[in-house]
Amino acid sequence: MAGNSNRLCDQIQRWLLEDNDDDNISSESEEGGESAEQSGPLGSPHHSDTEQDGEEDEDEDKDVHLSTLASYQSRNGTKWSKIAPSTSRTRSHNILVRPPGPVGVAKDAKTALLSFLLFFHADIWNVLVDSTNIYIDIIKSKYQRDRDASHTDVIEIKALF
């Protein structure tokens, strides 16, 4: 903890010194007529401490602590909020209560067969029988005996189900 505060103080001092150096360079160039590049090592692009410090500052800026962010972002791009959603009570007039289980005519069905028959009316059974008989007529030629491919009725289809 103390190391972090010392490093922070050193960083602030470097920034202040950089600002003071920039002020001195500009004032010398105005007074002496020399440009900052001609004045010596401060103006030269090589061996500059301020450039090296600047590169270190950029690296430190990239290392942002996760505790300072409002959310995390996973590798696949999903954002995770640090703040939990508010947990508020749902008012009683907003809750719809409907008892579970069948309603209406389905309430009277006591067995699984009676429940199944509620979905299949007589019309549906007749459509199933007609469609099955059409298919039987199509494949009847593949059999030698007629009784192997005879027409069906509602009782047989219900027995199948």
What would you note in describing this structure?
The structure is a single chain. This protein is mainly alpha-helical and 161 residues long. A hairpin with a 5-residue loop joins strand 1 and strand 2 (79-81). It has a two-stranded antiparallel ribbon. It is elongated, with a radius of gyration of 43 Å. The protein is 48% helix and 4% strand. The protein has helices spanning 2-32, 49-62, 112-119, 122-139, 154-160; strands at 71-73, 79-81. It has two domains: 2-65, no CATH class; 104-160. The protein has five helices and two strands, in the order ααββααα.
Question: How would you sum up this structure in a few lines?
Answer:
By secondary structure, the protein is mainly alpha-helical. It has five helices and two strands. Strand 1 (about 70-75) and strand 2 (about 80) form a beta hairpin.
